[in-house]
Amino acid sequence: MAKKVERLPPTPSVLKKLFAYSGNQCAMPDCGRPLVDKSGTLLGKVAHICAAEKGGARFDPKMNNEQRRAFENLFILCGIHHDVIDDKSNVKDYPPDLLRKHKAAHEGRFKRAEVQLIEQFIDTTQAMKPTYPKNLKGLAEALGMEEIAGHEDEINGVGDFVDNLKELPHEQREFALKLAERMRRNNTDELPVDDVTGAFRIGRTALKRHMDLLEHWRLGSIDEGEYQKYFVVLWSREPDTNPWVEILEFCEATKHMSDELIYDLNFGLYDG
Hints:
Blueprint: H1 12-20, E1 44-48, H2 65-68, E2 74-78, H3 79-86, H4 96-119, H5 137-143, H6 152-165, H7 170-185, E3 190-192, H8 193-200, H9 204-216, E4 220-224, E5 230-234, H10 243-254, H11 259-262
Antiparallel strand pairs: 1-2, 3-5, 4-5
Helix pairs in contact: 7-9
């Protein structure tokens, strides 16, 4: 039986994370109003992407109470923008996917700054301990592939991928995901080297540095094809799936952010 819809306050840990990634600025593009002024007065408001209660802006009946108060469904805005997006007459101008995009873009700036700061002192690959999937029911539902739920080879394949991913530096994780996005758009498993250097505006030396690390951790390589043409390849996980494209498709279907997987290593999300 579904639980009664009720408004739950964000947990203290979620609030700390929201403010840490806010940069003390409203998350709406080109706003920049402070969330806390020089005197310490709180000016910002925590906003829901999908409303906490029935009748609110963008309320999603498929979400449960915990999902509605989770970090992924919240961001911090100035008072003006908070009231604008919560006005139901403005919902068509501020749909959930657009607000998630604004949240990801804004918080991403400060997440990268956090990583750069941490990198000065510790091995960032050890900052997060991975959570492994146990049944893949969430992934199966998201991708419409019921046959992978509970399948031992699939579960072990994801686990092996996570074991390699957790050792890969963050810069190469982000680069690999960008490669996967381009591969997915073009419906291909490989990209010509010239295509990658042109699309991402990087030199061959920089590309080789990225791919050498991906190959070292058994996640990708530059392979030679016919007529001495070279291609960038992301390696499949067992039994035979591109795990990077899998991440993109899962996030698109569930509205989770890819950061939760490639940086936070929370592959328990695949269980649903």
